[in-house]
Description:
Blueprint: H1 2-18, E1 20-29, E2 35-36, E3 38-41, E4 44-49, E5 56-64, E6 69-90, E7 93-115, E8 121-147, E9 152-160, E10 170-184, E11 187-198, E12 211-212, E13 216-225
Amino acid sequence: MARVAALLLIVALPAFSQGIGFGVKGGVPLTQYLETTRANTLRGGHDYSAATRRYTVGVTGEWWLSGHFGFAADLLYKRMGYVGLSSTFGAGRGTRSAFDVKGHSWELPVLAKRRFLEGPVRPFVAAGGILRIIGPVRAKGALTTFDLIAGTEVTTPIDTNQPSDLRKRWYPGLVIGGGVEASAGRARVVPEVRLAHWTANISSGESPGALRFPSNQVEVLLAVLF
């Protein structure tokens, strides 16, 4: 019995490996990584700004169960960051802070894929789930604490890998996409457009809504698989 199982495994391995591919992937985000606004209250305010770095890089893998249906998974990297100004005031006392946050963002999409045609160029659609993981990150700046009654003012440096706006580091979502797959010798070139919808978002107790992900993220990606 063991010999029969081993023989079946040896026979199945070539067919199994033919449906597996690995490669690299890169792309350009068409939407902002972060949405930033100003939030003011009677006791202070928060003002954020961020610049989107227009690149995505990573690795990808696919497993095709047949010529038309398979699964794909990516590990994609983005550089992220923002700057913030914050102030609080009450009863003659308050704070002012200015900080710059820089860090790393990782996205893990897992999708089911469906091809529609046979031949050297094959259109496809894909859908699945995605998980965004932020970290490590670092915030640097300065915090000034003042007391108008006592006439004192003290400035201390900010240097932390736990900024209050990013205490939550895991963000799930849904993703759909489509594109074409073209054979180029032993390689496959796969351009696609992908839309991710985040089902969870940044929620800062200090400045709710002033720093968030756009609900929908659109990017153009290009993969080369072998």
